[in-house]
Design brief:
By secondary structure, the chain is mostly helical. The protein has helices at about 5-30, 40-45, 50-55, 60-85, 85-105, 110-115, 120-140, 145-155, 165-180, 185-190. About 70% of the residues lie in helices and about 0% in strands.
């Protein structure tokens, strides 16, 4: 038997444990907040606390992994949005989903501020770029802007008041941004008004 044979199941098992820990952490963070005891997360995942610490040596590492998982989900959904909707509406829907993620995960923000979110930001930026570029190509979004402009303008979504009417705040901000991105777009100039 070669030495690599037994290693594969161990890696697959370790990957499954990591996935279970991230899923349990997401559920517990959402239900209780980021200060939930780590042994509760390990128990919910069906693993020991040592397994948790092997994968995530600090609470912040676990919070970051859970956040990145959520970002991956929202960004992956963008492909389906683009297949089902005109690009400008897909971008608007993505912004709404991102706003929801940012608000519902605000309790993780302390750990996220400590760094390490570059990968998540890069995924969000790439998704914005894909949606925005498709909108420009379809003529439903103006072409004199750049993806970086859109990403900076979306920065206000980070400041939504989770304790207040964050859905209303997000809707108004997204409407304002989309109106600006659609103004002067070739399809609009030709009299094809976009749906809101």
């Amino acid at each position: 038997m070669n030495e690599q044979g037994p290693a594969r199941p161990v890696r697959a098992h370790a990957r499954r444990n990591r996935e279970k820990l991230v899923a349990a952490a997401l559920a517990e963070f959402t239900r209780t907040g980021k200060d939930v005891p780590l042994d509760s997360i390990a128990r919910a995942a069906g693993v020991g606390i040592g397994t948790l610490y092997r994968h995530f040596p600090t609470r912040d590492a676990l919070v970051l992994a859970a956040y990145e998982h959520e970002v991956d989900q929202v960004c992956a959904e963008a492909k389906d949005l683009l297949a089902a909707l005109p690009p400008d509406r897909a971008l608007r829907e993505f912004m709404g989903r991102l706003a929801s993620l940012l608000v519902t995960k605000q309790h993780m923000s302390e750990a996220l501020r400590s760094g390490g979110t570059e990968g998540a930001y890069s995924k969000v930026y790439a998704t914005i770029d894909t949606l925005f570029t498709a909108g420009v190509a379809a003529g439903t979004l103006r072409s004199d802007m750049e993806t970086a402009d859109v990403a900076r303008a979306m920065g206000g979504l980070l400041r939504l008041d989770a304790a207040g009417d964050w859905k209303g705040q997000a809707e108004r901000q997204i409407t304002l941004l989309m109106d600006g991105l659609r103004t002067g777009a070739p399809a609009r100039a030709a009299g094809h008004e976009p749906e809101r």
